[in-house]
Structure formats: structure tokens, C-alpha cells
Amino acid sequence: MELKGIEKRFSGVTVLEGVDLALYPGCVQALAGENGAGKSTLMKVLSGVHQADAGEIWLRGNKVRFTTPRQAMEAGIAIIHQELNLVGGLSAGENIFLGREPRTRLGTVDWPRLYRQAGELLARLKQPIDPRAPVAGLSIGQQQMVEIARALSLDAEIIIMDEPTDALTGIETEILEQVVAALREEGRSLVMITHRLPEIFRMCDSVAVLRDGQLVHDGLTSALNENDLIRKMVGRELADRYPYEPPTLGEVMIEVDRLSAPGVFEVSFSARAGEVLGFGGLMGAGRTEMAQAICGDRPIQAGEVRIRQQPVRFASPQDALRAGLVYVPEDRKQAGLLLEHSVADNMSLAALPAFCGPLGLINAGRERAAVAHYIEAFQIKLRDMHQPIDTLSGGNQQKVSLAKALMTKPEIVILDEPTRGVDVGAKREIYLLINELKRQGKCVLLISSEMPELLGLSDRIMVLANGRISGEFTREDATQETIMTAAAHSEAATETVTP
Predict the structure, then answer these.
(1) Which of 153, 213, 300, 412 is such that its CA lies 20 to 30 A from the CA of 444?
(2) CA-to-CA distance for 355 and 364, rounded, in angstroms?
(3) For residue range 354-380, what is the model confidence (pLDDT) as tens digits?
(4) Cα gap 462→473, rounded to integer Å
(5) Phi-psi region of 5 (alpha: psi -120 to 50; beta: other; left: phi over 0)
(6) Nearest in space to 310 (alpha carbons), one of 171, 208, 418, 411
(7) pTM of the model
(8) Contact at 8 Å (CB) between 270 and 252?
(9) Residue 442, Cβ neighbours under 10 Å: how many?
(10) Above pLDDT 70, what percent of the chain?
(11) Can you tell me whether residue 451 is helix, strand or coil?
């Protein structure tokens, strides 16, 4: 396939400008760039979600124009979108073959064949997922694997993966790498969009870089190193990717004592003002469940949570917010944002009481000033603050989700995968923000599946396995090996280390 001179504009804003890109059989093409650079838009043009305003698409030597995703799919193009597109009430098998269900001779759905073939695809991905299980009950990582299985079911010649590993564990990522290698051997053409730079060098043959909607580089991956690639993505040198600052510890802000909740068993820890306490573990280890229980979004079955030595039991995240504790969820689309509303409405929603006068009326000027401040501080790329948030890139949506939480002026901040789907430049901005929270004496609980991020930012690290604490490490003692060893434990038998 060749894309020639592709241009795309939204509401007069140019998102893609004169982009040329060629895809070859048996080649994995990386597409890199900062959030808002145009990567996802380009792939949506290629797959029929959007139509280009200018330029041409050539497929196997023939000029084509896709006006619907189905046309692209029928031409042998499959796309795995960054935001999951599954129907929660349907089973994994039904989602994999949605709209393409195998039929019997009488024209009815051949359910045994559907579930058998879905099971074979999931087995290829080494997933012990029941194809009859509703996807709403699966973890985000498992849902991502169902999306990948759906793409494989199309038997497509061109497969586009938009941030396919964002929600995957290390083991699941290794499985995906094996699948990508097998597809390359079969002569498929693959496009991978990822912010995880090591994956580009492990999995991709060539890399194209978009910056502000323009193609600024296209060449062999082997001709670059990570620093070269970062420089091409951001247009500048980006030193010190994990800017750690030693803490100035204050009082104990939060204590969790033998906490049990659905998915969590007798978890205990404490964290101080000015400290970043990291939480590692494999997908499904119970980190998110623990955070939800602490903030009132999941019922506590036993144990106690204390804030500034006072026992608390929140009935909802709103109660936690009033007590100075805010939780930024990992799934911004489902739990963090109102996608049909504007950036301003989303960002100020949780902090509205702070903008109200004595009669309960919102001071719109103060609200807009606060929103403008966070847009500038987080360098959020948008047309204006009234733009619908679902028109922003995934990374910029994540920035809004973080700004929404911090606008409430919390004392305790729980960040659940805060850099998921965020580019390398924006990640560093978030890391600097975490350091600023430390300097302000905030207590930060950081849940992250990115090992370098966890090691680079945390003052201490707790590891969960099967809903239990399986290890605790000081910054000096923590290594990738010790954390992975603790994360792989099936029982909480690791001796804890206090700082």
C-alpha cells in the first residue's frame, strides 16, 4: 500500500499535511510521534474511518478510496484501535466475529463453530479466556487480547495496531511479539503505533515519525537508537527521562491495615507526605481493585483505612474527594471522562464547588481561568477549551483526566497507570508534575505497569500478586529482577523491607 500526499483537517485545523507512507509485505512498520502528531488520524484514513481531504491511497497498484471501515476490512485491512471497541454485554466469541458470524446451511448463526474458532484464536494468543464469557467481566488486558483476536480473525493482509500493548502485562506483550513475528513470516504487512520505544526496536523493521501532522522521518529502525528517535519525535533533546527528586518526608498521610475487598486480601501499607509509593505487579494482581476500595469505589469487606490517623470508610469517590483523596482511574474512557462534553466541562467537573459563590452560582470567569492554567501547564493540544474531549488524542485526554483530579487540590493522589497512551515528551511532563506534588508535600500512590517508570519515580515500591502484598522494596533495593520475582509469586511470602 502507498499513501501519497495525505491531508486531513478538522474544523479548519490541519491534522495531516502531505504525508507519504509505503507499506510492504513481511514488514513491521512503526509509526511514532507525540500525542496529537496525527498518527491515529493517518491510520483511520487508511482504514476508512476518516476520508482524506487531499492525497491518494494505492493498494496493490490500484487507486482506492474507502468511505467506510467495512470497505477497508473487505479489502484486507484490519485495525486495532487505541480505545477498545467491544460490546460489553456480548461474549468474547461474539465480539470477535461481530457482523461476520459463521452461518449454518439454514442461515442461522453456527454457535458451536463460532465459539470453537474464537477459542482457537484466543489459544493462539495463549489466553485462557472462555469464548462464551461476557467481555464486560474481563480485565482491560484481556479485552485488548480479544480485540487482537478479532483482527486475526479477519485474516487481513494489512494489520494496524494502535497502542496494542498499553493494557498488556509483560507476559502478554511477549506473546504479542511472537504473534507479530509469525504474521511477518506469513508475509503480512503490519503497522504498529506505540509510545513504548523499546518495543519499536524489538518488533519493528522500519519507523516513520510524524510531528505536527508532517512526516519528518522514515527509515530502518536499525539506523537509529532511542535518543535519535526521541529527538526526531519532539524536535529537541530530551534529557533525564525519569527526573527523580529525593523526598522530604512529612507525616504519615494514609495507612491501610489488613484491607480486604473483592480481588484484594489483607493488604497493609502506609505512605507519608512528600512520598511517591509505587505499586507494581502483573495484570490482575489487584492493584486497581485496591485503589478502588481505598477511594470508595469498591466495597471494603474487612480491615481499615486511616487518613492522618483517623479511620475512614468512604461510601463513594465523592466522599474521598471531600477528605482530600483523589483517584485517577486507569481507564479514562469508561471511568475518567465524559467524552461527549467539552474539555472545560470535564476538567472543572470535580472541582465545581471551588468556583461557586455564596449563592451556589458558578463563577464562570474563575472556572475558565483555572482551566486555561491547566491547559497551559499540561501543554494540552486542542483548538479551544470548549472542544469536545472525544476529538482529542488519547494522550491529551489523559492529561485532561489528570488535570481534573489535581484541580480539586487533593492531599493524597492515587495515579493508576497515569502515562498509559502518552508519548515520551508528555510522560516527562507528567513526571515533573509528580515531582511538583512531592515538593508540595502531597502523598502520591503510583500504580504502573511500566517497570522503568516505577523504578525511576518511586521512593518505595510495593508489589502485589494475586491480591496480596508479595514484596516491598526501598528505592536502593528495587530492580527489575526483584520486582518481577515478587510479582510472579502466587503466595505473599516475601519478607518486607521498611525504609
Answers:
(1) 300
(2) 8
(3) 888 877 888 888 889 989 998 988 888
(4) 7
(5) left
(6) 411
(7) 0.65
(8) yes
(9) 22
(10) 95
(11) helix
